[in-house]
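During the second year of the project, the team shifted from modelling isolated chains to modelling whole assemblies. The rationale, set out in the original proposal, was that interfaces cannot be judged from single-chain predictions alone. As a representative example for this report, we include one of the complexes processed in the last quarter. Its constituent sequences, exactly as entered into the pipeline, are reproduced here:
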Amino acid sequence: MLLNDKGIKTHNGSILQSNSVNRILKNQTYCGHYVSGDILSPHVPRLQIIDEHTFSLAQKILEQRSTKNDEKTQIARTTKGKTLLSGNIYCGHCGSIMHATSCLDKYNRKDGSRYEKRRQQYICSKKGRDSKSCEGQSVYAATKIDGAVSTVVRSYLDMIEVTPKSVALEKRYQLEIADLKIQEREVSQKKKTLNESLANLTAEISKSLTGDSTFTPDMLSMAINNTRTDLQAIEDKLAQLNYKINNSQGAMKKLDHFYDQYKQWAAEFDDETPEGRKMIICQLIREIKVSRGYDLEVVMDMNYEQFLSFVP
Ligand SMILES: [Zn+2]
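Output from the structure prediction step:
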């Protein structure tokens, strides 16, 4: 394990076991909550050492890598293996997942020397079990598919390089937030007016009791009740608006993260190790479908695809 190789130990100096790492990755205390069973405390900023986005990404990867989740696996279960794709490539004919395998070509040359070369290939898992069950091609050369996918990914990465952050993010969310804030100001003003009437009515009550008001206590009490009902409705509306404002700021922060991540990949992809490229592709691409004649359909993850609509 990488952590043990780096000499990282537990608090009592023993080596880390995979289940402790698993527990750490799933522990919401690090996001700033006290945890008791299934119950989380409200957010406590000083407890937080991991941001929400990183935490939820880790949960997504854990779930995708779990062996229970056999069908749609967007994250490579393992970054080992010599092919670029694993868990994210599907047969374009029957929709089954494609497995990466390898085969060994070997023969004796005329001069008596031995030729041996290992080739990587992708096969339709359904056709692999029963050749009649899928009408697609059963074997695809991995080098051909990996090369084509790399070219497509590179072109997506090039597109983000020409999309400025201000264009991609702000246009979309600033307008929405600005509109919500105008509504919030209007509703706050109404709340203030209602509170003033309530104070006036309450003051009128004591006058009414001493006979110095033209209103009877009953009339005033009815007016106070009505004002309170209106005030409650206004407060509910204000809470709703505040919730929306906080949420869209949260959504904006998330978007910001995806944008930065995307940009970073664009800068690093060419120099990445094969494992690194594999992980980038797993997150950037939702799935790849391959059909007869190496016809590829590449579906991008929507978290990243959303930025490309801004490309001029
Ligand atoms: Zn198939």
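The radius of gyration is 31 Å. Residues 91, 93-94, 96, 124, 126-127, 134, 136 surround zinc ion (CB under 6 Å).
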